[in-house]
């Protein structure tokens, strides 16, 4: 039985949408897509800390709802993003995409409010299924293969989490999802951490992300870029804050992502590598584990969801309209898609940490927090990543997509972009700018109390960010010929995943092939001869036994028939004689036995 | 009032102006940095003027040149290397 204070679980609204959509008819069903996000926004702004929702099931008490400052800030940005994402996808006729997006978003909310590992696991897997279909729904050979790889990889990650959960339950006799003491070396903690790190795309477990996200549907990738990695950031913050290894891995992610983004050609793959990089900031902040860096990670997750959603929407518009997201095939489109370019640039400047945009108020908090906590190398690594971010997403991508040193491309046939796509982008762009100008819009929801609140808008911060970005821009200007993107595939860690896949396949296929070969030989030698002997015996039985009985009966009936025919010769005297003899025989029997 | 597309087409022909504006911004930032310094430098060396300018330019240069000219030739393959497309 469920118990609750006043708490509306946003996941319920999205699950209801997923159930109802297949039964809707006509064209007006699409407006239903906006109802769950509106309910979710209402729910997250009306819930209060301490609200809970528990369910007693199979002898276990599941905590479906746990409301505190940390779950609220993530739920809030999920709700806002779901509204923008659903609005952006409003024109899509394929109901399966909407159903799976709803399932996916419901999974995200379920994870954020989960108070125990069992609930978390169920919603974690729900996300995995939903997102797999968002890749699959592109319905190309490329996306089908990518979806299959994505599902395999996330299933493996889910199994690590499940294994850790079970071992943890055995050890502590509780499913409660609570913080693990920093660097507690139990096997179950490491398994759970690794399971979380798979979804957080921690290097070297990250390669599923740039493999799958560029192959998702235009609207599906907008959802995916917001929920999977940020849910993982949330659970890492909830469970593993202050784990030193995360500070190291996060910094590595931040740099690794921008290095690959420098080389990439596909706009959506560039953005995918930048998810790895930006999530690196959050993971590093979690690893450092002070109130300021945890707040920085939360703020950056919030800001990142808004601007990354907007970036994927912008490149999604390019893909939708021009039919490609490859930079070497684009260029000269600024005047053809001016508002797509303008809205994209809001997101590009946000992710770069430009003053007036929300990346400036979130990224700098994490870096300053790391430096103040004497994690100087972490802070330095994040500054290096900031340079790469501006060069590849802030300049390279828009330059080669919209200009590229080419004449305005007035001849290219462009598909008209529906109003709802612009509307979804506008919501996120307004929020990116509003938070950048007035940080309190975001800061008031930060989950951890600090003695000296961080102030981003100082003269030095503006000068420092300005110099870093402007001179990074100068590096791009000087090296614009070098950085020109070309078609090609850059090998990443998925090379090893595929090698492991091939190895597993070999380990299964080779023994099976060996068994099959030997079985065929054994069958040929023993089975075939046995079968021939049985066939011979059956043949003999058929001829001698069956045929003998049937033929003998036939011959017997034929003989009787022939004798009967001889008796029927129209000789009346013989008939009478035989009748008398028969009568006497019958009377004899009667007399004798009667 | 011209649309955004018209404005973009017009600005395309003013490349010189935008370049001058860009280099002016760089100069202004450098001048500002002589006067304005951090109260609590994170790395020590960032207390010196022009540190972040050199950092941005240097890291950008090494990153772009290193990845595109040194690393990418080693790891780049044909787009259909895995046979997925």
Task: Provide structural commentary.
The complex is a heterodimer of chains A (594) and B (85). Chain A is mainly α and 594 residues long. The longest helix of chain A has 74 residues, at 494-567. In chain A, β2 (52-57) and β3 form a beta hairpin. Chain A is elongated. Chain A has helices at 10-20, 35-46, 69-88, 95-113, 117-136, 141-172, 187-199, 208-212, 220-240, 244-263, 267-288, 291-322, 338-352, 358-372, 376-403, 419-437, 440-443, 459-478, 494-567, 572-593, and strands at 2-4, 52-57, 60-66, 489-490. In chain B, 65% of the residues lie in helices and 2% in strands. The longest helix of chain B is centred in the C-terminal third of the chain and has 25 residues, at 51-75.
Q: What number is the mean pLDDT of chain B?
A: 92
Mean pLDDT of chain A: 92
Approximate shape of chain A: elongated
How many strand elements of chain B? 1
The total of helices of chain A stands at 20
Helical coverage of chain A, percent range? over 70%
Unreliable segments of chain A (pLDDT under 50, ≥5 consecutive)?
A: none
Tell me the helix content of chain B: 55-70%
Q: What is the terminal-to-terminal distance of chain A?
A: 87 Å
Distance linking N and C termini of chain B: 46 Å
Write the layout of secondary structure elements.
The complex is a heterodimer of chains A (594) and B (85).
Chain A: E1 2-4, H1 10-20, H2 35-46, E2 52-57, E3 60-66, H3 69-88, H4 95-113, H5 117-136, H6 141-172, H7 187-199, H8 208-212, H9 220-240, H10 244-263, H11 267-288, H12 291-322, H13 338-352, H14 358-372, H15 376-403, H16 419-437, H17 440-443, H18 459-478, E4 489-490, H19 494-567, H20 572-593
Chain B: H1 4-12, H2 15-35, H3 51-75, E1 76-77
Could you list some keywords that capture this structure?
heterodimer; A: 594 residues; mainly alpha; three-stranded antiparallel beta sheet; 4 strands; 3% strand; elongated; B: 85 residues
